[in-house]
Amino acid sequence: MKVLLLSDTHSEHTEKWALGLANRGIKIGLFSFNKASYDWYVHENITVFFEPDNKINAESTLTKLAYIKYVAILKKIIKHFEPDILHAHYATSYGLVGALADFHPFIISCWGSDVMKFPNKNFVAKSILKYNFKKADLLCATSYTIQDYINQVITIPVSVIPFGIDINDFKPKKVESLFAENDFVLGSIKPLESLYNIDVLIKSFAKLLPAYENLKLVIIGDGTQLTALKEICKTLGVDEKITFTGRIPFKNISNYYNMIDILVNISEYESFGVSVVEAMACGTPVVVTNVGGLKEVVRDDSVGLKVKVGDVEDTVKAIELLMNDKTLYEQIAINARKHVIERYNWEDNVKQMIDEYLKLLETHNKPKEE
To answer: Can you give the pTM of this predicted structure?
Structure first.
């Protein structure tokens, strides 16, 4: 089987799906409007057909209209690669070029802001999204939260396939840590962008620090807010207790979850929350905001704690509860990993996707009745 993925090669999610499918013998082609930060796609079953020198802004409605010029490039790639399936990961930018290419079977996987934010911009944006959905033979969502947003645009069946995790990699394990053995480490593994409220985490950390001298914070990721976040650290006088690592290659991420004691993901909104699932699989308790896909993943207090968006005091309270109640901490760690194994096993999720491919091909190749 050959699948042409229209997806951002800079994204860890694209990396996971492409490698997950390629490792099972599927030939993968890649078409991206961004450039990978390292050569993760060096694999006998993966070919990169298109990457620009500079990232194309995927959030602009006007840019999406300009994407039409890339359809000709995509059609040439389709003619050369001869895929069995065209699969767009992200409903707007990649969904639009895929829809305009008019190749079938065509799948769109929705990731989050493409359906949670983009259609609210204006009538044109919602119309583009609806057009893309109508052209697709199958719609997929990473969570039931996203499924609900899709159904606000168009009422059609949606296959929910999460961004699961490799439970054999993401597991409790001994690693060489950046921190001392007696340090208690809070962590964030998210892009450094405003919607992820990392400034709220830093302020919460600053409130906790006077009572806990061995407390540390590690912030993993990069983004446009890096300079502003470092300034906040300096202003609050906590910069020497906080480590900014930059972006970490996906293959090393599971080690970092095992360096930290609590993952704090207090986003403004979240479609799913992959980093939360990864932390839970490693037996690292999580504190998350009670929104969207996060409250879907952290179903109740037995697997993690939820706080109000943007609330420093609420965040401090939850972190401190986990720090001071060892029994609660250990029970959540056990329950969280069990929950992930049952619901978010990557092997199961890849099998789900391949099964959808096979069903779609069977339907598409079935002779039409006279």
So the answer is: 0.79
